[in-house]
Amino acid sequence: MSDRRLSTSNSRTINKNTNILKMEPDMAQLLISDKALTVIFILLICLINGALIVTQVRKPMFYQKVKLMMIISLAIGDIFFALFPLVVQARLLFEDDKSFMTCRLSTNTTTYMSFLIHFVYGLGLVVLAAEVFLRNRIQSIHDNRYKIVTAVAASSVPWILGLIIILPLCMSNVDYESYCINSQSLESMFGVSVFLPVSLSIVVSIVLSCVHLPTSQQGQAISTNQQPIVVSQQTVAQQGHLTQYPPQDYAPGNVHYNPLNSNPYPQNAVSYPYPANQQVMNQSSAVNINLNQGVSTIQVIPMNQRAEGQRLFLISIIFGLMVVPISAVTLRAADIFWLALMVKIVVTKFVYWLMVARSCLTPLIMIGYSNL
Prior knowledge:
CATH architecture of the domain at 34-212 and 305-371: Up-down Bundle
Order of helices and strands: HHHHHEEHEEEEEEHH
CATH class of the domain at 34-212 and 305-371: Mainly Alpha
Strand content: 5-15%
CATH topology of the domain at 34-212 and 305-371: Rhopdopsin 7-helix transmembrane proteins
Shape: elongated
Oligomer: single chain
Structural class: alpha+beta
Largest sheet: 4 strands, antiparallel
């Protein structure tokens, strides 16, 4: 009796699963969901990336910093490369007349959404990692015009390489006259525009998290045999702070020393400002000063390098997880065995909108990274 009940329940479960697999997709519901998601992501991409740009522009001298200019460049790329295909898709969904969709427009939309945006973003993460290694050298430049040129040039590198490499690779072999067929292999297009930038960004961010490259500066030192002195993190302002020095006629023997008095100087001590050439130390650095006879070596070790590397690693991982699936599904579409049409539609829709959501999620994380 129990065996009959078990077999009956198993058969019912199998029938339910079979019915689910045989379910035909409701095209009307899919159309509504596509319209809603398209409008939502258009608004989110504009708001989030716009907020990211505003937060960087409000920072002082942002146009002289490679990091901030690169973040602004990536936000502009997300707005342009993601919004253009989404607006075209919105027209296809909401307009009855589809005649505006030409072969050239379709090719441009696919190139921007599936290839160029990922290439630019991945190389942008690599530039951000390289900027951390070269930050001390860049900040040592005193010519503000050279700093501006350096920041603009560095933030333009992913765009220039994308125009030189990706556009010819993805658009030069398209037959615009008949059937709009691209004879370029998908392996080469996805390999160069997706898999290579994702891999580079992850590897470089790992190196940035693990390797520390202190910078060295040479200066004069007092002859002494003392051990190296470690100057803790402090911020010393050049102007405005006052310290008390004893007057010129003050001598240690003229004042009775009181061990309970934290200030051994007399009450009438004169306040003098720090000298104009007082060295300013950054809060985010630890300075190791080795005092030897002759010349000393000052090593400035950036304390936030590890934090920036970890944040870039997080962004790179999320970037890869959100753009690689649709590339893999597209490459292996002919080899994948779909149990049902409904399963195929659900999977392809999911990986597509996952790719689109990357233009919203990583800019949110980038807002926190820009404040490090």
